[in-house]
Structure formats: C-alpha cells, structure tokens
C-alpha cells in the first residue's frame, strides 16, 4: 500500500486550523487513454511505463489527478472495456508491478490516480462467463449473467427487443455444450461484453472485493463505467417503440438509470469511506436530465458524475448559460460539485465538434472548419475552467488536437463502427496516439510506430512544437491551470453571478474574478471588467474598453 496523499489543513485569519475542502471538489482531472498516451516499449501501443515516464509533463501542465481508461487483462474487443480479469494488467500495458510503480510515482508528484472500473459487463473470456457457457442451461453459474431462452417456436428469436448500444440486437444466442442452439445472453454493448446480473450476491461481493484490491494498491478512486446500466427493469420488458438507440444517448430505457443502481453505490461508498485519503467515485452516467444525474452524487453515494449535458451543448450563448445554470442548480440540493467536460475517448474531440454545424451529435466524420473549431475550443476551455466545480481534460485537447476524421476503415478498431456498418461509431478518431515531438517515429509517442496512423500535420501540434510558444494551445492550458491554482475564485464555490453583456456574450462573475465569452463570429466591444488575466485570443484594451475577438474567452481580475 502506498503512502496516501493528505490535504494540508489551512490556517484561517483567526489562527484556527480549518478543514480544507476535499481535493476533488474543484480538481482538474486529466484523462489518459493508455493505448494512445505514451509507448514505453516501442510496440506501437501505449503502456503504463510510458504513462509513468510522462507524469512530470502532467505535473507541469498543472492537473490534480489522472484518470486512466482500462488497462486490465482483456481481449480488447472494446479497447479494454471488456475485462477478462479485474485484478490483472493486460500484458500489452505492462504488469501489476508497473501499475504499483505508476501509482507510487504519481503520488510522489502529488498527483492522484483514478482507475476505470467496468462493472456493467465483463469480457466473454472472463472465467465466470466461460464457466457459465460450459455448464449449460439451468446451471447456477449462468445466474451471474442474463441468460434467457429465446422466443419463437425453436427459441430462434431474442428474448426481448433491446438493441445493443453498438448496433444490432442486445442478445446473442449460445450453443449448448452438445453443439445444439441454446439460450441467449444479454450484452448492452458488443457480444464480447456480457452484462452481469447485479441482482446476484456473488456479483456484488466480487466487485466489493475488486474495489478493495485497487484501493489497497493506492488508487485514489474509480471512474465507474456505464454506472447507469447495472440494474435492469424487472422482467426485462420490451421497449416496444422500435426506436433505435443513439450511441451512449440519454434516452429513457428499461436498462438505464433504474433506481436500483443507487443501493450499489451506497455500499461502495461505505467501502471507500473506510480508507484514508479522500478516495472518490465518479459516475459515467448518461441520464435523461441533470436532475437524474444528481441522484448519483447524493451525500452517501458517489462524489462526482460527468456532466454530459454540458459536453453535448452547442456553442451558443443561451444554450451554454442554460446548461450552466441547470447543472449548478441540479447539484445544489445534493451538495455535490458540478463537473464540466468537453471531450473524452467516446466522442469527437471538441475542436472538431465546434468547427461543424450545431446539432450533429458526438460522432462526426467531417472535419468542418478547423480554424473555427480550434478558436471555439480554446474559448470553451477557458469558460469551462472558470466555472465552479471539477473539470475534466482529455489527453491531447491541451494540444488543440482535432479529431482524425479520415482514418481508413481498415485501421479502425471501434467495435461500434463495425456493428453500425460504418455509419456510426467513429470513436477511433479521438483515440489516435498523441504527438510529443516534431520528428521521430510516431512523433515521440514511441519508437515503434503507432497503432492508429497520426496525421503529418500533428508534428506542429506536438508538445515540443508548442512548448514555450506564446499563444499556443498548450501554453494556454498551462497558464489557465496555473491561474486556477492562484485565484481561489476559479473553480471554488457553487454559484456564478451573470453580468449584463451584449448579445452572444456570456459574462460571469466569481469572487474577485470575471469571465467573458464571446460566442459570436464577430468581435464585440464591451467595458473592460477589470485587469486582463488571460485570454484565448488577443484582446485589445483601451480607455476602459475591451474588444473581445470572435469566439474568444477572457479572464479578468477585479
Ligand atoms: C466507455 C466506452 C465503452 C462502453 C462499454 C463506455 O461508456 O466509456 O468506451 O465502449 O462504456 O464499456
């Protein structure tokens, strides 16, 4: 067990020692996608040793914690979200020793490590599922999953009409041990990802034990995958509407956001609370409303939930203001911090989303207007980092990386692309390994190429190319994160005050600080609210007036 990070108590003006707010309430958490961050052994695939070697970069960037997407033993049918062994590292990422060393090194730098927990489903190569298949219908070992006989005269039809999030039926028929067609099993995602039956005590016990395993190793918390999916409506009722699901959409479904999930998280919270060091649970919960999301972060459940309503908001003043207000209001009654996120490994990078027309969703195959996208992305980031609560940064967004929208189909690996027959599931575009240097194999990602091809123009977007360059996106992120540490008004608290501003401009005030965002495509002149602290594009200030360029955010101290 590694030494745990303890927050120092702060001295108040009266001389008393006040308990500091827990670290996660306003933390900036950086998502590392292990396949694509840094390759330590030159096999073209990122790994734990690579991540460890780049921790000083993350420290210098100024983040508080690192969330690692799955690195467990897995056949990689869904890039590691199909786990065969929750207590082992996939050899392509390293060993348990590497995981331990990574956590220790991060702690030595005062960085926290959040690991990804995948409880809704496992891999079809997980021992439990293989045993269940081997034992055949009627076996108690099948009760840990959702096995059902099919409908129709010979059981040739799926048990209900549920569709997989990745396309096609959510059921796959098995063969009996004697080779005859057998029962069906449920998989909300790929057929290689059978859903656990969370009514079963063995499943509940197993995950409590997995939590302890990683907590004992020093993990600071868990990002809980598909947290809204574990419990299914009793009887697995048909949906009936024939509606197709959107990838990871917010639809109301009998397999999502069922009230029963909350009891599971309460029991997990009790476990985390036994450990020192403010460990956290973060819900990946796609729910119909922010109010439903707030239920996951009640005081005895998780600590944070991703704010997907914010991620899916268009670059529009009114929509942004509405979602900011709505998010803050929804979290207030439960006392949880709001979170903000613009990109992750499942959606088109925001530098590309914002360069496309609004309303196209999160799976884009068009590059759109690259310059516009980057301009808005930089502005959106400064807006996000000015809001109260915790913010998530997805690897490479600090370089202003666009999505790679023109990957040849033959290199794609996202299972949803294949299940949707190439009409959806473009998640590989945000998973291309990131560039560290201008030259070299895979631009410094590793010495042996990269598992997805990187565009040649990424040389100029590399960490090396942007370091020390005034106005580069990397330096903007570094400056913003440094300012967030220096100015307590940024990130802290639970509310914003909106100020009067010209049409298309968001102006919000926090303690000692104002953030102005011009969402329009033209410069806007407005009274300078204070001293310019940082801006996503050059701001001219003259005679008490400022000209905020098109699609730009400026921070002011007042
Ligand atoms: C993860 C995805 C994954 C899915 C199934 C998600 O929400 O973020 O990358 O494909 O869960 O595990």
From TrEMBL:
Gene Ontology MF terms in the entry: alpha-amylase activity
Domain Glycosyl hydrolase family 13 catalytic: from-to ranges: 31-427
Gene Ontology biological process terms, A to Z: oligosaccharide catabolic process
Similarity-based family: Belongs to the glycosyl hydrolase 13 family.
Name of the protein described by the UniProt record: Alpha-glucosidase
Organism per entry: Streptomyces wuyuanensis
């Amino acid at each position: 067990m590694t030494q745990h990070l303890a927050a120092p108590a702060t001295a108040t003006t009266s001389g008393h020692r006040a308990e500091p707010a827990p670290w996660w309430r306003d933390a900036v958490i950086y998502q590392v996608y292990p396949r694509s961050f840094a390759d330590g052994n030159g096999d073209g695939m990122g790994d734990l040793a690579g991540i460890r070697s780049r921790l000083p970069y993350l420290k210098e960037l100024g983040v508080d914690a690192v969330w690692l997407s799955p690195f467990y033993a897995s056949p990689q049918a869904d890039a590691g979200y199909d786990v065969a062994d929750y207590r082992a590292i996939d050899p392509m990422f390293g060993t348990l020793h590497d995981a331990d060393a990574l956590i220790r090194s991060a702690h030595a730098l005062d960085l926290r490590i959040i690991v990804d927990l995948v409880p809704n489903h496992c891999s079809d190569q997980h021992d439990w599922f293989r045993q269940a298949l081997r034992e055949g219908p009627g076996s108690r070992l099948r009760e840990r999953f959702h096995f059902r006989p099919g409908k129709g005269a010979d059981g040739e039809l799926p048990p209900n009409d549920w569709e997989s999030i990745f396309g096609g039926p959510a059921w796959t028929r098995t063969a009996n041990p004697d080779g005859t067609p057998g029962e069906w099993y449920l998989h909300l995602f790929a057929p290689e990802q059978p859903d656990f039956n969370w009514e079963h005590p063995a499943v509940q016990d197993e995950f409590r034990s997995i939590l302890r395993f990683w907590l004992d190793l020093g993990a600071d918390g868990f990002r809980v995958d598909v947290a809204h999916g574990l419990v299914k409506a009793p009887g697995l009722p048909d949906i009936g509407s024939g509606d197709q699901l959107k990838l990871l959409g917010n639809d109301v479904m009998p397999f999502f956001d069922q009230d029963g999930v909350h009891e599971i998280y309460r029991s997990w919270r009790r476990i985390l609370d036994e450990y020192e060091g403010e460990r956290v649970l973060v819900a990946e919960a796609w729910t119909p409303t922010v109010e439903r999301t707030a239920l996951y972060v009640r005081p005895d459940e998780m600590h944070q939930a991703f704010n997907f309503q914010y991620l899916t908001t268009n670059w529009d003043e009114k929509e942004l203001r509405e979602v900011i207000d709505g998010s803050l209001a929804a979290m207030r009654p439960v006392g949880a911090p709001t979170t903000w996120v613009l990109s992750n490994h499942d959606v088109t990078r925001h530098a590309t989303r914002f360069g496309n027309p609004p309303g196209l969703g999160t799976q884009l195959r068009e590059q759109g207007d690259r310059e516009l996208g980057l301009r808005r992305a930089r502005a959106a980031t400064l807006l996000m980092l000015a809001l109260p609560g915790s913010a998530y940064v997805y690897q490479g967004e600090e370089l202003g990386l666009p999505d790679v929208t023109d990957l040849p189909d033959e290199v794609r690996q996202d299972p949803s692309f294949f299940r949707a027959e190439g009409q959806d599931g473009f998640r590989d575009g945000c998973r291309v390994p990131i560039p560290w240097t201008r030259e070299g194999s895979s631009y410094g990602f590793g010495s042996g190429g990269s598992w997805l091809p990187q565009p040649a123009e990424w040389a100029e977007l590399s960490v090396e190319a942007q370091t020390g360059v005034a106005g580069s996106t990397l330096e903007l992120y570094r400056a913003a994160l440094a300012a967030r540490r220096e100015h307590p008004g940024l990130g802290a608290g639970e509310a914003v005050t909106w100020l009067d501003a010209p049409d298309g401009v968001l102006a919000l005030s926090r303690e000692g600080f104002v953030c102005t965002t011009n969402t329009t495509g033209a410069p806007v002149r407005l009274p300078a609210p204070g001293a310019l602290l940082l801006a996503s594009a050059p701001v001219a200030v003259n005679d008490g007036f400022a000209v905020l360029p098109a699609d730009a955010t400026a921070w002011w101290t007042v």
